[in-house]
Amino acid sequence: MTKLPRMPPRPLLREADTPIRSKPRRRRNPAQPQLPLDPMPSRIDPCLALLKPRPPKGPQWVFEVKWDGYRLAVHIETSRVRIVTRGGHDWTERFPAILAEARRLPVSTAILDGEAVVLDERGRSDFGMLQQSLGGRGGKRTSREAIFMAFDLLYFDGHDVTGTELSSRRHLLEGLIPQASEDAIRLSEEIEADGERLLRIACEQHLEGIIAKDRNSRYRSGRLGDWLKIKCIQSDGFAIVGYQRSSAAFGNIGALLLAARQGEELVYVGSVGTGFKADEAMKLRTMMDKIKAARPAVKYSGRRKNLIWIKPTLVAEVEYRAWTHDGKLRHASYKGLREMADNANLYEIA
């Protein structure tokens, strides 16, 4: 079994002029009142973070590192453990280390919300490494390197706790996961800091960004503003609608042509021509050549030559710095393919 990467202590806290510390944990009260049991749901649609340009201010907001991986829910049931993706797919067998650790947690029934990640040598989540460990997009490989960063608790010992405030849910979650754990299930620590300063440190250490959560909010499915994400570099999903053929580029892909969603239509938002690795580009080219289209899925008035149009069924994760005045991506870099069913939400133009 591959040894799990050792997580450096507090990757956000190094090289800071004043230490930033995780919120201290409180001990669980074993004399808590007995409540009627609630049926355990087979699935709960996740609470999603709303993108904001800067961190919120106010005492009700708490912060965490933003992890870059696959959103999962770990269902610990009386007779089994299930690991369910954001889209409702059962990926239990694909994360054997997480599965084994979930069985060891001191709880009879629970639903943990979190992110499966693979960490680099500095303790940062790396989506490319996670995809590689799973055999690439559409791959069927099991990942023994992936760990689960738990950040919420939705069901606990027979009780649905989604209606309680975040601070109470976190209090219960902290009692389940050992402090400073280096096992396959770890706690995504809350960090006590000013949001602006925390974001600055996160960006200096090349993390993706931070998450802000309303400590008084109950768990609500969807993107309703109880959770906010603030990124160092913008990163979103865009449909690949074609590519420019180039004999000088990896996989003969000079650039991918991208689209975002606007209402019920796809709108061309520019291209991305950097960030490809040789082996990934070859696989991507093979996939695209199987879904060629006779005409583009978007209105295109550019002057590029040697364009190959494809059906818009592949979703690329793309990092970018900003938007141009005419609605095109600036300084875009290809990051990888997202699973259509789970992490492939397209960027939506307002």
UniProtKB/TrEMBL annotation:
Top class in the EC scheme: ligase
**Composition-biased stretches (Pro residues):** 1-11
> Per its UniProt record, what Pfam families does this chain match?
DNA_ligase_A_C, DNA_ligase_A_M
Q: Which domain of life is it from?
A: Bacteria
Annotated family: Belongs to the ATP-dependent DNA ligase family.
Q: Which UniProt keywords apply?
A: Ligase
Q: What is its EC number?
A: 6.5.1.1
The protein depicted here goes by the name DNA ligase (ATP)
- List, alphabetically, the PANTHER family matched: DNA LIGASE 1 (PTHR45674:SF4), DNA LIGASE 1/3 FAMILY MEMBER (PTHR45674)
Domain (ATP-dependent DNA ligase family profile): give its ranges.
148-231
One annotated GO molecular function: DNA ligase (ATP) activity
Concerning CDD domains, the annotation shows: Adenylation_DNA_ligase_LigD_LigC, OBF_DNA_ligase_LigD
Q: Which reaction does it catalyse?
A: ATP + (deoxyribonucleotide)n-3'-hydroxyl + 5'-phospho-(deoxyribonucleotide)m = (deoxyribonucleotide)n+m + AMP + diphosphate
Tell me the GO BP annotations in alphabetical order.
DNA recombination; DNA repair
Q: Which parts of the sequence are annotated with region: Disordered? A: 1-42
Q: Which organism is it from?
A: Rhizobium hidalgonense
